[in-house]
Amino acid sequence: MAELSPSRRIRRTPFSEGVEAAGVKAYTVYNRMLLPTIFEGTEADYHHLKSAVQVWDVACERQVELRGPEAGRLMQMLTPRDLSGVVPGQCVYVPITDETGGMLNDPLAVKLAEDRWSISVADSDLLLWVKGLSNGFRLDVLIDESDVNLLAVQGPKANTLMARVFGDAVADLKFFRFGHFEFEGREMVVSRSGYSKQGGFEIYVEGTELAMPLWRALFEAGADLDVRAGCPNLIERIEGGLLSYGNDMTDDNTPYECGLEALCKPEFAIGCIGRDALLRVAQTGPVQQIRPLEITGGKVPLCDRAWRLLAGEKRVGQVTSAVWSPDYEVNVAIGMVRMTHWEPGTKLQVETPEGRFDVLVREKFWAR
Amino acid sequence: MAELSPSRRIRRTPFSEGVEAAGVKAYTVYNRMLLPTIFEGTEADYHHLKSAVQVWDVACERQVELRGPEAGRLMQMLTPRDLSGVVPGQCVYVPITDETGGMLNDPLAVKLAEDRWSISVADSDLLLWVKGLSNGFRLDVLIDESDVNLLAVQGPKANTLMARVFGDAVADLKFFRFGHFEFEGREMVVSRSGYSKQGGFEIYVEGTELAMPLWRALFEAGADLDVRAGCPNLIERIEGGLLSYGNDMTDDNTPYECGLEALCKPEFAIGCIGRDALLRVAQTGPVQQIRPLEITGGKVPLCDRAWRLLAGEKRVGQVTSAVWSPDYEVNVAIGMVRMTHWEPGTKLQVETPEGRFDVLVREKFWAR
């Protein structure tokens, strides 16, 4: 692998100092910000995440905030998910679509109040889309990237560690709910969420002042829990079926293709920008859809581009994420498969830079 | 430096194969695409760029195309530059601003026809901004990221090399003009432009089919010219005063702060989104502005964040790009300086992670 050249354009985070001290070996760039990808090694980080607890610098999940009398209206314009029943205090995963129903982002959004939403954006400049729409439609909403930096605490021992720093009540938080908890005299929003299936929390750290103190407090409180710096893990996220915007789907794909049909209610999503196109897709369902794929025949190479998925010599889809899983002793993968070949049990092949491998379409992801 | 983790989300380019074979050592990520930053070394690459000719994979300059009856109107909405006199066949550098006059991008745009523009975007999702506006204002324009990949040929021997591949006529192209030239029976748009002061061209390669054949043809034709794979060079671009969006300016800054006042005519830019705010700024001029800065006292460290610029203990600006220049034997730098301290000859200090260095505000960049 080549190195990543630092520059101001690739933004550091308020936790970068801690990440560097912990010996980060590799990064990716996410929303033009540093996102660690490897500390000890992808497999070592994976085993640790599944057995202990990790602190993740996920400040790259930038927060786009909508405030004002038309914030709710604008929010509903962004997504085919019906938001009419969402109450303040709730987190929702919202596919965001353009006018043709193509996915522009797949963030977690928090309804802070009737007139206030905060969106944790995946890797695209959602801010520009939202501001462009708001300008064009002349909506009465303030739109900002707020100075909030997320720190995630993930792993089976996350409850224990968080309770030591924020008090026992934090362990009572239900999935996808948030609460306010105190750290060094300041209130912080903490949600039970995160980009792993090991359980855990995301802490919304306002500004930079308390960022490193919080980082250090978590490490001090968790020394006996073997707490380490970590990051979203490629193996663990594929096993758990956590999709990655830009990898597993792009603006070429509708939410239906991404298996998010349960979240799409274009018939109720009044004002949703992609509504017309998505109502059309909903009539018949998508032609291709994301599937968990098992790849056999040895470890696959690093998946840095879409690999063609073949039935004989016919292209029937593509693999977009793939990696060897030590726990399942198989390559776990995510791909987009055409409906003619998406039934569980279908046998296909995938073309990688290191040759062809056998593929089995699975019904479910490995970990749920 | 840490490594960059490859994934599909960080897009490869049709020239990546050539870049890898040439031994690329480091990348940055630009518009979620790989942009090489180092081949032999920043200084070695710099000396070579200034003396020979390089081929650059700048496919990351994604092309946003506007087509349709209202393409010209939308284009003018994006920028305070007066586009009324621009003729088909002309390239223009266009600061693009949001509703408060903050810079969202600073691309080169090409007017292909009365109803067709192509924008070579700097590192932000301009596509989302443009599509959001077009949706909101219900404009009659098609907006796409087109499958066009730029290859730049830069350096004092660029004319010679390009004439060998595209014919002598290409050497007659005037600065910021483009023409159509043939390669392997296909027409390609070639412009005299590029992100260096050494002179050269940018070739708009449609699709992927001819990408590597063109790459190889340039290397075969230029063997005796010592042609090498290269990339925008940090030292050379600072010496020449080439600004970098995301580094030297962000959406916090107006075009006036970026020294682009000569390009701003908000009074004539009818429909420009940032017009009101920019008319206000134009009344008095900006409070801070980009300046070339000379930093002395030894080589500065790598500039990966904004460094505070100080007059005594008072913050009077920031340095956003800085590097040692072998040719000028000084650290060349770009910074944003408040008007109280921006006069050429002003002595300041800059706070870097390796301590303070002396700074001199210069009148002009080193190379023009």
TrEMBL record, chains A, B:
Extract the Gene3D superfamilies matched here: Probable tRNA modification gtpase trme, domain 1
Give binding positions for substrate: E202
Q: Which InterPro entries match?
A: GcvT/YgfZ/DmdA, GcvT/YgfZ_C, GcvT_C, GCVT_N, TrmE/GcvT-like
Q: Which domain of life is it from?
A: Bacteria
**Alphabetized Pfam families for the sequence:** GCV_T, GCV_T_C
- Chain ranges of the Aminomethyltransferase C-terminal domain: 293-361
Q: Which GO terms describe its molecular function?
A: methyltransferase activity
Its recorded name reads Dimethylsulfoniopropionate demethylase
Question: What are its GO biological-process terms?
Answer: methylation
Q: Where is the GCVT N-terminal domain?
A: 21-265
Alphabetically sorted, this entry's keywords are: Methyltransferase, Transferase
